[in-house]
């Protein structure tokens, strides 16, 4: 009688191996073979669950979204300045785990730029982000041009992510916090 396989547990094992490959090698190093090697398993085992690199990338995005959402905390928080500040700071690579998450996101952007489907998904993700920011900006800065403020916060925060990844000595946690505070102080004129 063949051994029973816990397929959910096996997918979790593959997901963890996938995450380790992404954290170490980025999307450029992601393949069915590298995930299998990371697990100490055969490529056939991985292809039983994911038939192609594209399926692995889709699963990686699911993991990335789940980990990002978890790092951002509850979406249902009081509107205004304090919760907006907390959410913006949560996006920044101020811890080892946050830096790993940011490196993987930045690596994904390279794929999304050249793949229309991934690009559309990333654009939709950014729209969800802006939709979350809008009521916080409107509540905290009633005099502000909400759309302009949201676009500036989005671009500056994600620009800080990139800068902190390339120059962590200059853009350490305290500096990132000060820059977010400076950006928020400029909202609404």
TrEMBL record:
Q: Tell me the domain of life.
A: Bacteria
Annotated Pfam families? TetR_C_6 (PF13977), TetR_N (PF00440)
Q: Which InterPro entries match?
A: BetI_C (IPR039538), Homeodomain-like_sf (IPR009057), HTH-type_TetR-like_transc_reg (IPR050109), HTH_TetR (IPR001647), Tet_transcr_reg_TetR-rel_C_sf (IPR036271)
Residue ranges the record marks as coiled coil = none
GO MF terms listed in the record are: DNA-binding transcription factor activity; transcription cis-regulatory region binding
Report domain HTH tetR-type positions. 8-68
What are the alphabetically sorted keywords of the record? DNA-binding, Repressor, Transcription, Transcription regulation
Q: Which residues bind DNA?
A: 31-50
* PANTHER family xref list: HTH-TYPE TRANSCRIPTIONAL REGULATOR RUTR, TETR-FAMILY TRANSCRIPTIONAL REGULATOR
**By what name is this protein known?**
AcrR family transcriptional regulator
This chain's source organism reads Nocardioides soli
- Species lineage: Bacteria, Bacillati, Actinomycetota, Actinomycetes, Propionibacteriales
């Amino acid at each position: 009688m063949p051994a029973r396989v816990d397929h959910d547990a096996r997918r979790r094992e593959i997901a963890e191996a996938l995450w380790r490959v992404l954290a170490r090698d980025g999307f450029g190093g992601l393949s069915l073979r590298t995930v299998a090697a990371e697990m100490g398993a055969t490529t056939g085992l991985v292809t039983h669950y994911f038939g192609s690199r594209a399926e692995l990338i889709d699963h990686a995005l699911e993991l990335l979204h789940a980990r990002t959402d978890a790092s951002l905390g509850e979406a249902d928080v009081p509107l205004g300045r304090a919760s907006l500040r907390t959410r913006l700071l949560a996006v920044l690579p101020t811890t080892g785990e946050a830096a790993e998450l940011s490196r993987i996101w930045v690596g994904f952007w390279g794929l999304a730029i050249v793949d229309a489907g991934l690009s559309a998904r990333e654009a939709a993700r950014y729209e969800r982000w802006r939709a979350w920011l809008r009521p916080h900006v409107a509540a905290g800065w009633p005099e502000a041009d909400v759309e302009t403020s949201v676009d500036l916060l989005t671009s500056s925060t994600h620009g800080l992510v990139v800068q902190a990844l390339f120059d962590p000595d200059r853009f350490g946690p305290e500096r990132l916090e000060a820059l977010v505070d400076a950006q928020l102080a400029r909202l609404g004129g």
